[in-house]
Every structure is written in structure tokens, then in C-alpha cells.
């Protein structure tokens, strides 16, 4: 009985040491992965990297990790032709089936899904914020974007008719979608400016706009978008996503 107790104690001690060694190793790996991702994506701040699953060491021995979560607070994505940038907030990605090279210099996820937010002030940069003529004597421009409720964006437009600015801006509820990597905002109806009837194409040249978003981390792509209180919430997904290297 005494020998059995000693054996059990040894097993418990070794098990505890293994757990400690496993946690130390995973913490080290998370820090290394975060530093590599920061360099690879040219980030201004170190991202959060969390390696899920236990034990970590046996996953490493098998050459792949089941699940890695990555968090990036502020990411500057390419917009349009790449000359402009648009800020993506609170990007969180869940990467599945991460395989890495023998020297651990690169890692690729079989699939990835995630969420992020584009603030309304960032999206507003893509709208026509400078007064544009929509008819003889009538100019208009978008001055604000906000949550319109029920998944809609409220687009606020300011207009000037015959040199006189209308006392109150007009607004229209718009639908936001993702098409071929573009965030597209399209008015559900057409506002009137001071009772003046305008051609639909002229009005939509102001109220409707789109923003191409490229260069998201690891090659992930926009999947869907919905209006929310603080901005448009986007979902992203991808396959063979490069985590580092």
C-alpha cells in the first residue's frame, strides 16, 4: 500500500509539472506568435493571441494546433485603390486547424471566421461629404451616418436650394450589404430637398456609396455586414489563412 501511495504521489507530481510546463510553453508560444503577427501585418500594437486546447505540447508534437484566437484593436485596411486606409476596430478572428513549418517560422490556418466593426465616422469618409450639384440651383452632401435601427443605416444629407441652406438636414434609411469585398450603402427611398423633385440617379449619386476593403490580415475576406449602434458590424471568413511568416 505504501508503494502504491508513493507511486500515486509521483504521478500527481509529474502530472502537475507537466501542466506547469505546458502552460509555460503555451504562454511563450502566444507571445512569439503575437510578435510575428505584428511584424508580418505591420501593426502599430502587439495583437492578442490565445492558443486554445490542452495539452499544448502534444498538439505541437503533432505539427498543428486546433484553435487559435487573434484580437487586433485597430487595423488599417486598404480602401479602394490601396492609396487610402480605413480603420477596422476590434477585429477578432478564430483560426481552426493551424499548421506550422518545422522551424515554426510560418503558420497557416485551414479556416478562419471573425468579427469587427467599422465606425460610422470611418465609413463617412467614403461618402460625398463635399457639396455636389444634383440639379440646377441645388447642391447636397452627406453630413452624417448613424444607426437607423432594424439593421439600417441612417444617412443624413444637407442641401442648399438657390443659395439658401435648408434649415433642417434630410435623412433616409439605407440598406448596407457586402458585394465582392465592397461595403455598399443604398437608400431604401429617396429624400426630397425643399420639395424639389429630383431625378433618382442624381439623388442616389449622393445618398448611395460603396467602400472597397482589401488587405485584411492573413487574406481573410468580408462576408457580411449589418448596421449597429457604434458602426457597421462585419463578419469575415477565409481559408488557408496565413497567421505568420
TrEMBL record:
Highest taxon of source: Bacteria
Pfam families referenced in this protein's UniProt entry, alphabetically: LmeA
Protein name, entry field: DUF2993 domain-containing protein
The species this protein was found in: Streptomyces purpurascens
Classification lineage: Bacteria, Bacillati, Actinomycetota, Actinomycetes, Kitasatosporales
Amino acid at each position: 500500500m505504501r508503494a502504491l501511495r508513493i507511486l500515486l504521489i509521483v504521478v500527481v507530481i509529474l502530472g502537475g509539472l507537466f501542466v506547469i510546463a505546458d502552460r509555460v510553453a503555451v504562454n511563450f508560444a502566444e507571445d512569439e506568435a503575437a510578435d510575428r503577427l505584428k511584424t508580418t501585418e505591420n501593426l502599430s500594437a502587439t495583437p492578442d493571441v490565445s492558443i486554445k486546447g490542452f495539452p499544448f505540447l502534444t498538439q505541437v508534437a503533432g505539427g498543428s494546433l486546433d484553435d487559435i484566437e487573434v484580437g487586433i484593436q485597430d487595423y488599417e485596411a486598404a480602401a479602394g485603390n490601396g492609396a487610402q486606409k480605413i480603420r477596422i476596430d476590434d477585429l477578432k478572428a478564430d483560426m481552426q486547424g493551424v499548421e506550422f513549418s518545422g522551424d515554426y517560422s510560418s503558420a497557416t490556418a485551414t479556416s478562419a471566421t471573425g468579427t469587427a466593426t467599422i465606425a460610422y465616422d470611418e465609413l463617412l469618409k467614403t461618402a460625398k461629404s463635399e457639396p455636389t450639384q444634383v440639379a440646377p440651383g441645388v447642391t447636397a452632401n452627406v453630413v452624417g451616418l448613424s444607426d437607423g435601427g432594424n439593421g439600417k443605416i441612417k444617412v443624413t444629407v444637407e442641401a442648399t436650394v438657390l443659395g439658401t441652406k435648408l434649415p433642417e438636414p434630410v435623412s433616409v434609411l439605407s440598406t448596407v450589404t457586402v458585394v465582392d469585398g465592397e461595403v455598399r450603402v443604398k437608400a431604401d427611398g429617396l429624400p426630397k430637398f425643399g420639395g424639389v423633385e429630383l431625378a433618382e440617379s442624381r439623388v442616389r449619386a449622393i445618398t448611395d456609396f460603396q467602400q472597397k476593403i482589401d488587405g485584411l490580415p492573413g487574406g481573410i475576406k468580408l462576408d457580411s455586414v449589418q448596421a449597429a449602434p457604434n458602426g457597421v458590424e462585419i463578419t469575415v471568413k477565409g481559408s488557408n489563412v496565413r497567421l505568420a511568416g
